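Table 4 source record.
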Amino acid sequence: MCTDIDVDGIDEPSWNHLAATFSDANIYQTWPYEAVRSGESNLSHLVISDGSRAVAAVQARTVQIPYVKFGMAYVRWGPLTRFDGCHDHLDRFRRAIHAIRGEYVDRRGLSVRIVPRIYGSHNDVIRPILESEGYGCQPTNRTPATVVMDLRPDLDELNRGLHHKWRYHLNKARKQGFIASDGEDEESFVRFERIYGEMVKRKRFVSFTDVTQLKTIQRRLPANFKMRVFLCSFEGEYCAGGVCSAVGDTAIYLFGATSNLGIRNYASYLLHWNMLAWARSRGCTSYDLNGIDPDRNPGGYQFKSQLAAGHGQQVSFIGSYDAYPNMTMRGLIAAGDESKRSTDKLSVRSTG
C-alpha cells in the first residue's frame, strides 16, 4: 500500500473540507479554533493519503522557543482517522501517530504531546499502539473523565431516561415562562459573554478561558462547523446561556453560564435540553457533556450524570501521551508539567 504524507501543504478551505469527511472531527481540530487561540503561524497540518484518498489527518499546535533548541507540538483530540462504515480505524491511527512522531520528533526535534479523543473501552486497544510507537503516558493528578450521552433514541425516550429529579426540574423550568432562543450570530455570543462574566464574578474564580475569542472563531468557521449559542431569558433578562458544537458524530457542550436569576428558576435545565435536541437534529449520535469532577465540582457532576442517567455513561479518557527527541527534552517537559500542577493546586485553594 502506497502511503503519501503531506506536511503543511494544505490551505484552510481544503482542510475544512477534508476534516468534514471524518466522523471523529471536532471543534479543536478545526483551523479557525486553533488559529485564533494559538496564532496562525503556530499551526501545522499533516495529511496521510493512500493514492488520491486521505485516510488520516492531524492539526498540531507548535511552539518553538527562539534561540533555544526547545519546542513542542501539541495535538488536541487528534489525529482524525474514523470514517462512517469503515473498520480499519486502528491501522489508520497507527500510521498517523507514526507519521506525527517522524515529522515533529525525528525531523524537527520537537517533543510531541497527543491528547487523543479516545475513552472508555477503546483505551485498552489504543494504549498498546501508542506505546509501541514510542509514546509514553503522562501521569496526572486525576484521570480526565466526562459523561457521554447516546442520542440515537428519539426525544420521548431520552426524556424518559432522565433521572426523575432532573426531569422534575426540567418540567418546572418549562412552566416558568422563559423565552428560549438560539443562534449563530455575534449578538448571541455577546449576550452569553455577559452571563458568563456574571457567573465568574459570583463564583469568584479565575477564568483561564477567554470566551470573547469565540466570536472571532465563529466568523471564520464554515457554515457546517459553526457553534450555536443557546439562551434563556426571563422578563427581559437573559439568565442562562450555553455554547454547543456539532462537528462530526459527537456534539460537545463547550461552555455554559447561569446568572443569579437563572440559578433560582432552573433555567439551565431547559437550556441543556434544547442543546441536546439540537445536537440530535444535526445528526449527532453522541453528546459529550465536556468533563466532570466529582471532587471539586460535585454539583456539576450531579447535574450532568442525572441528565445522562438512562442514556449515558461516565467514561475516562486515555489521557496524554508524549514522545521526545532526547532525555533533556523529557526532563524539561516534566518540570513544566509539575510547575503547572502546583499552580493548579494553588488556584483551587485560593478560589475555595
